[in-house]
Amino acid sequence: MSDAPQVSVECQVNGSTVVLRGHPMDRLLAVLRLQLGLTGTKEGCGEGECGACSVLIDGKLVNSCLVPLLHVRHTSITTIEGIATGDRLHAVQEAFIAHGGAQCGICTPGMVLAAVSLLARNPEPSLDDVRTALAGNLCRCTGYMRIFTSVLQACRQ
Amino acid sequence: MSETSIGLSRPRREGHAKVTGQARYVDDFVLPGMLHGITVRSPAARGLIRRIDFGPAIPWSEFTIVTAADIPGRNRIALIVDDQPCLAEDRVNHPEEPVVLLAHADRQLLEEARRHITIDVAAEPAVFSVDDALDGTTIVWGTDNVFKTYAVARGDIDTALASAPVVVEGEYETGAQEQLYIESNGMIATASPEAGVTVRGSMQCPYYVHKALMALFDLPEHRVRVVQTETGGGFGGKEEYPSIIAGHVALLAWKSGRPVKLIYDRAEDMVATTKRHPSRTRHRTGVTHDGRLVAMDVDFTIDGGAYCTLSPVVLSRGTIHAAGPYSCPNTRLRGRAVATNAPPHGAFRGFGAPQSLFALERHMDRVAAAVGLSPEEFRRRNFIQTGHTSAVGQVMREPIDMNALLDRALTLSEYHAKRARFTEINPALRVRKGIGLASFMHGAGFTGSGEDHLRSIVALEADAGGRVKVLSSNTEIGQGTNTIFAQIASSALGVPDDVIEIAPPDTATVPNSGPTVASRTCMVVGKLIESAAHSLRRDLEKVGLEGERFDVETFRRACAEYTTRFGTLRATARYSPPPGLRWDDETYTGDAYGTYAWAVYVAEVSVDTATFETHVDDFVAVQEVGRVINPVLAMGQIEGGVAQAIGWALYERIVWREGRMVNAEMTNYIMPTSLDLPPIRVYFEERPYAQGPWGAKGIGELPMDGPAPAIANAVAHATGTDPRALPLTPESLMALMETARV
Predict the structure, then answer these.
(1) Mutation for testing the B interface, residue in A3, A41, A113, A140 having most B CBs under 10 Å
(2) Which among B180, B230, B674 has CB closest to A105?
(3) What is the pTM of this model?
């Protein structure tokens, strides 16, 4: 609303410096989608349960629906739009396409980020590691089996 | 020259857009000058609306406010009986029924405004259970609270039951289930009396929405346009309900003169939209001492909620599937859908069949035990075979081999060894093990004469550049429509897949090929695409295109020549029933489905006797689905369906309070996570079905039918209890086990 306090928050998003504006408690999810047009970050539940809004903040996987704008000052944020290198997809993205890891696609950006985050800290995860790492990202289509396959195959790339 | 792509795991066509975040779902669109919409809902389950108060703290003149009085056409959601209003007028019949719509540019202010509207309802007695609905003390719908009944009998059930050596009775219940697509429902509309109505959004069935909007606005078909945006899961939950949201958002756009977006948040989606029908099934089964079925008397009741909506057709499928894959000379199937004052229950993968098959397959284990046979041997003695007649009088002409499926499932799951070992070791264990099975089938396509009434039509259009566009109203909702349609079209044309484009479902440009429901997209609509492709190819023979397979350049030259000489190259195909199919709507007998997919599933579970938690440890799914068009997509369908069914069996419990879901959050409505599911091992038997494209049958709903009874049977094995109701939460299992101990 018009009388609400406004803040300006400088941060890095997908490698570029940006200044985000809004109420200090605005949800990062909404700011990314509306101010930057980064609509690859999805809202599934709005309460931190489903992981569809996952982004990386300073390399850590978080639910952007629970992150207030003020908290991202001077951080580095990676969204799904920042995962491919130019036209070259990340191995996780390639594997999701090849092995059926995406169906309806609404959980996919968050799921890809969760997988990328896992592989960054554990390049050779076991199936159990994958299951644990993805437990905060809900998928209603796949039963997860092909997502597991995709992540494990991506490690081999 | 390349072979056809049938049977190859072509990557999902829109996969790149989905993994990069470029795929655009309805909430990703922002139109210039766009307002946001919100729905103000009934606080009460049933009663007369006395007044609607708009609190003084809100600048109401800034808002677009819509009530039933603003509807230009008929205040009904056009579907089957047309009893459901788009907006309640003088009375409400369920909690959360839409009453008032608001639009404003500021979403936060909109949410605040919603809280300042008070809908004052003079409450009337309401009905919240199947028993209360049938009791008849309070009538909330029609003259008897009954939306629809079916009764179909073969042989002489009463005599057969009276003379049967063994009769086993049982009552079984299943709870409601939320579809829980991860993209909640939403729509965007532009509308004006001059331009008509255009709605874009998340949906399975553009022409259902189109039909509903025409009636609501009293507009001819060409002035209503419905476009599907990328859809983040449906599972039936976006079959009928999107017509309501489309109506609402279009009314707001019509009145405000601005584009309006209406997106449900998760809580609203869970509390207000449809769920799987709760059910109660009663079985009386007569059987000989050597385990032959002689009588099956099934009474299947579903809770339809406050309006009829799709309940008659859910009931129909559930009733027809209630006798399962068995042969029995004397059968009586009775089904009834009743009214309660909950939000209408609706389509959800399986569409009534998972409910009646849960009851049947749990019951079959009990009947087997009553005659001293193992679950598998009892089934083996009673499986329906090719040439047998089903409980609705369908002579099964297509090949059926349930025994082969059973054998394979038992072997792959190491059923016999595990069953014996678990039985032996369980008494000493706190965490007990069990293994159970279910055998079942699912009819593909609309029931009975349904496809005849739909008369679906598809078109293929080739341009001079040799690109072929598939035009259909069937939607990609994650199940792979785009990819398999391209495989079917390219294979029938004899060209590489990348020549094919799939037109976006937009009622302004695609013909009505029917809804994306009922496991019909691949089998029924895919077959039409195959036919249209053959027809297009015959057209190209006029310009000398001959052979089986063509490279891109040869095909392009032929298309170019054709369009130069004859103009537009377009072929259509319209559904006509396969020869020999007969169905009688009056007696409800005949060929209920053109064909069925058949399956045997085996579940292995652990049950912790201290915490009463059940975990599925292994799952084997063996099915005969005709030809598999795309193995990765097909396995994904089975795995996903099994996962949803495991959720329904064990975790997903809706807590009702006076017709309202009170746990409408992902925090306390629990769907399976990546840690909860077993390995889901999927195996296909492929027996081509002549009326499906390259022999394919329907596949989407099948995997929802079998897991719950297989799990319940495994829990029975592990614990020695007799589970009769879903979900088998720790609380319900504790009650069962404490009763068993007494």
Answers:
(1) A140
(2) B230
(3) 0.98
Query: Can you give the residue range of the structural domain that contains B195?
Result: 31-124+188-264
Task: Give the nearest partner residue to B680 out of A52, A105, A145, using CB atoms.
Answer: A145
Which amino acid type is present at position B341? N
Mutate to test the interface with A, among B20, B106, B638, B674 (most CBs of A within 10 A): B674
CA-atom Rg of chain A in angstroms: 16
Is this complex's ipTM strictly greater than 0.85? yes
Distance between CA B210 and CA B201 in Å, rounded?
Answer: 12
Q: What is the CATH number of the domain that holds B569?
A: 3.30.365.10
Residues B468 and B432 reside in one and the same domain: no
List the single residue in A with minimal CA-CA distance to B17: A105
Residues B298 and B216 in one domain: no
HEC-encoded secondary structure of B439-459: EEEEECCCCCCHHHHHCCEEE
Instruction: Enumerate domains of chain A plus CATH numbers.
Output: 7-82 (3.10.20.30), 91-155 (1.10.150.120)
Q: The tokens 């499926």 sit on which residue? A: B405
Q: In this structure, is residue B36 part of a structural domain? A: yes
Report chain A residues whose CB lies below 8 A from the CB of B25: 39, 42, 106
Q: How far is B545 from chain A (nearest CA, A)?
A: 34
Q: Among B574, B605, B630, where does a domain finish?
A: B574
**Could you read off the pLDDT of B284-334 as tens digits, one per residue?**
999 999 999 999 999 999 999 999 999 999 999 999 999 999 999 999 999
From B108, B183, B639, residue closest to A143, measured CB to CB: B639
Domain annotation covers residue B202: yes
pLDDT tens digits, one per residue of B43-87? 999 999 999 999 999 999 999 999 999 999 999 999 989 999 999
Which of A39, A84, A140 lies closest to B182 in CB terms? A140
What residue has token string 């009851």? Answer: B359
Helices (H) and strands (E) in chain A, counts: 5, 5
Residue B390 corresponds to which amino acid? S
